[in-house]
User: What shape does this take?
Amino acid sequence: MRMYEEDGAATRMPGRGLWVEEPARRRRMPDPVRASAVRALLIVAVTLTEATITFFLAVTGSWLAFPMVICGIAGTVVATWAVLDVWITRQMWNQRGGVVSQPSSAAREARAARSPGLPGRGVGDPRGATPRPR
Assistant: This one.
């Protein structure tokens, strides 16, 4: 970073540069979750704007107040659905792609004993001779 003295000469000062990359505090949301969050934010913003307009129409006694109340109720239902969509999409992403499931060692041993052809299978196990019917 350059500092300038009164005579116009540039001097080099130690310190941070103009652009310093800093690590993010949180990981980025997955694309489907982020898309549903943006959609919900826009729907909630439109619903709140609609509610404000409805309030002012009701205060002035306009004939548009009643249709706007009906639209406000519908907007509230849609906004609630959109927020629930964010929650459901996040949970689905965590269950399908985000969380690594590791069974305990006891569960691993029990599964290895049931599955044919896996290491740790007991010799002479009658279940390994014929495949199970489906």
In short: The longest helix spans residues 65-98.
